[in-house]
Amino acid sequence: xxxxxxxxxxxxxxxxxxxEFFNAKFINILALSLFLLLAVFLxxxxxxxxxxxxxxxxxxxxxxxxNFFTHxxxxxxxxxxxxxxxxxxxxxxxxGFCFAYMTTRGPMALRKPLKIIAMIPLIAPPYLFALSLIIxxxxxxxxxxxxxxxxxxxxxxxxxxxxxxxxxxxxxxMLENNxxxxxxxxxxxxxxxxxxxxxxxRTITLPLLSPGLLKAALLVFVMTIAEFGNAAVLGGxxxxxxxxxxxxxxxxxxxxxxxxxxxxxxxxxxxxxxxHNYLLKGKKFTTIEGKPIASEPRxxxxxVKVPFIAITFLxxxxxxxxxxxxxxxAFVNIxxxxxxxxxxxxMDFRSNMAIWNSIKVSFIAALIGGIIGTLLAYVIVRGKFxxxxxxxxxxxxxxxxxxxxxxxxxxxxxxxxxxxxxxGIMILALxxxxxxxxxxxxxxxxxxxxxxxxxxxxxxxMGATFFTTFRRIVLPIMFPAFIAGFIYTFMTAMVSLSAVVxxxxxxxxxxxxxxxxxxxxxxxxxxxxxxxxMVTVVVLCMIILNLLTKFTNLDIERKGGAA
Amino acid sequence: xxxxxxxTLILKDIHKSxxxxxxxxxxxxxxxxxxxVTFVGPSGCxxxxxxxxxxxxxxxxxxxxxxxxxxxxxxxxxxRDTRICFQNYALFPHLTVGENLAYGLKxxxxxxxxxxxxxxxxxxxxxxxxxxxxxIDKMSGGQQQRVAFARALAYSPKVLxxxxxxxxxxxxxxxxxxxxxxxxxxxxxxxxxxxxxxxFEAMAxxxxxxxxxxxxxxxxxxxxxxxxxxxxxxxxxxxGYVNFLDAKIDSIKKETSAxxxxxxxxxxxxxxxxxxxVSGDDVLLxxxxxxxxxxxxxxxxxxxxxxxxxxxxxxxxxxxxxxVMLGDREIIVDIHDPRDHVPLRxxxxxxxxxxxxxxxxxxQGSGPADT
Lengths: 563, 371
Ligand SMILES: Nc1ncnc2c1ncn2[C@@H]1O[C@H](COP(=O)(O)OP(=O)(O)O)[C@@H](O)[C@H]1O
Ligand SMILES: [Mg+2]
Hints:
Mean pLDDT of chain B: 90
CATH class of the largest domain in chain B: Alpha Beta
Number of helices of chain A: 25
Strand content of chain B: 25-35%
CATH topology of the largest domain in chain B: Rossmann fold
Shape of chain A: globular
CATH architecture of the largest domain in chain B: 3-Layer(aba) Sandwich
Number of helices of chain B: 9
Distance between the termini of chain A: 36 Å
Strand order of the largest sheet of chain A: 1-2
CATH superfamily of the largest domain in chain B: P-loop containing nucleotide triphosphate hydrolases
Number of strands of chain A: 4
Helix content of chain A: over 70%
Largest sheet of chain B: 6 strands, mixed
Number of domains of chain B: 3
Shape of chain B: elongated
Number of strands of chain B: 20
Bound molecules: adenosine-5'-diphosphate, magnesium ion
CATH topology of the domain at 85-239 and 298-329 in chain A: MetI-like fold
Order of helices and strands of chain B: EEEHEEEHHHEHEHEEHHEEEEEEEEEEH
Structural class of chain A: mainly alpha
Oligomer: heterodimer
Mean pLDDT of chain A: 85
CATH class of the domain at 85-239 and 298-329 in chain A: Mainly Alpha
Helix content of chain B: 10-25%
Strand order of the largest sheet of chain B: 6-7-8-3-9-10
Largest interface: A-B, 26 and 25 residues
């Protein structure tokens, strides 16, 4: 065997040999390059933060940590952040469950409307709710003025409310997915044996959902403690880690303390990410065997129906009001002072420039993210090298990393040559690319698992080179995954604030940062108008996504039929 | 004994559609106490839907469900004395075998000791002693089936509803479980509605078979009635294999029921006991493979004997299947205990004898076409 191989190689010219080598090893070379990219743009910045937190001009030091734990202020900040995460998680998961139960088990007529209202916050940045609360309860807010209610919205309560409203969709989506994969016959069996609906929920539905509930809880926790905008706008004098990091870095230029706060912020996330990966492995009641059975609507018992409807309607209505007042405020001159219709916020030049910049940055991020995500999925599924799982884990971990930490990390890591990126447009795009890879990679993995490796091997058999196979067979199949990654990265990059707030340079304002600044300085009209335009872009994007998936699905079906 | 007693379960003119899809079109059935009634029909014909209507999971559009003389159509499942066993068993994966069996009893607020006694009793009943603390996913398919059955029996229901309870098991186990279910059902004297798409299963297990197709009841009867006196072509070919032969009645004597029919292979003398036929009717002869005699041809012309060629001879031990060509039509003849039979070789000339006791069907569409 070896002998024939050597003679075969000996017959080739040098160029052919190089080509041969690349064909055989391409996937490994690709994997290595991708790993390097992940290392540089995801691991290195975090490593840089860690190093910075232990660094003093003299070398290694624990002084910054000592500083952190001896100041009551910082400790309070950590405590508030974790408490916020805890309260939010409990509310979001409970309310998310109510919505998910109603949209899968509730009356038919309510399913669609409740699902839509529970998903609406997804099209908006989380800090939209901070803005809404200011419009409603601020010093010159609608409710404050109309009803004379004097409720201090700046503080812990305000942040909790805004965060809850913002992260209900996340919990809802995960739980709805989970409930849908429950075999409805299980609940029906309990019903058959005499259980009432409340008992069924307590003894069957919730226990079966427990892995999903835990997963949703972990995710909501990570997302809420890392979210910067609501705490920064509404926190007032109450300290939270994410905005404190911002103050340290941008306000006081204290990079060491900023790094310590970042480390404190990332610790729970890492713990939870590991828990998420290992704790939940194999812990799933896969209860549908064979064909899935659609659950038939059943009459809800009033003991369940009344509270569930009350909760979902209350939150649904609040979400609706929050959106409505932001749209309204975009057209009001100075809210509470000069309540007249104006177009000047919508037409504002700086706001429009910021939107345009955001679109540019997001487009670049989406393009790079889509490509890298697709390639990553390919090497993860088809590669045969050790460390595949590691690459998968790193590329999926981005979503669990607080944007604040990535922002600080990029600022530290890419501030000086040889890799000076700060002050440019690329740094704004790149952090988004690597934080939001997960969706594209997962879509790609799913797609690749759907197609048989044999199709590829058949192409190899017919003498096609690796590149031809990749171009002719793999790319067309992966295209929908690329689109998914592209659109998701675009949408999240459009609204993302927590990382870019560290990275924008004066000449290059982004929409998210413009909204944040405007809201913080009480320029409600400008903030609302920019938010409205941002949401419009995101919605357009989703419509395009829908059309594209329809189109590409048809395309693939046709190809499948022809083969 | 059950004749003057009213039926335990009565379905009256049940209709159900899902949107435009009419699934059940006026189903009326009576199930007597202690009886096992089987709904059999091809997949998608509405068997599960009917069972779910009885159990209270699906709302019917019109009609009545009566249990022990009480209309229960409006009641939710937890207030009905029916117990359903779903096709996928629907055992609670987060509970042990024992906890699964105890679930309904806890709901009924039995006390702990009584529950434990009942659980042990049930485990013995389905021969699963010692499995009480197993998780469900550590049980084999057959064991899961037993648990599901035991769970349904836990709190003696008035009617047991079994939706294809053994269709997920492999062939040998299926027969074993089928007989086991039948044994327990008769022993416990529990009124049961059994759903299956397998006609042989239905034949083997039922007191009464209800054949469903396209949402209509095609025939209700005992296994013998269904097999020997099918009311139409669908039933005849649904239960076991059947050879159809077109014929026209030349004469029929009402007193003796002796008839002469002509077929493309000549005249046959038959006993047609069904009173509705008269001379001149176009009919279909329903000839079961095992009722035909087959022998090597000796060329003699005799009554009810048709000449043919043996095309294939398939020996399966207890049975030999002969594919015989009569002209250009192929019929199937079964030879029971083929070792005692005259040896036959493929491509031999053979003759087949049609029994006088043949079931006869009116040829569909023949009536109106004549007039
Ligand atoms: N919940 C439902 N919604 C809509 N159509 C249904 C539903 N359940 C059953 N059907 C339809 O009713 C017909 C009968 O289904 P089913 O009762 O499950 O048949 P079987 O059990 O005899 O195979 C099928 O055409 C099926 O698609
Ligand atoms: Mg069925």
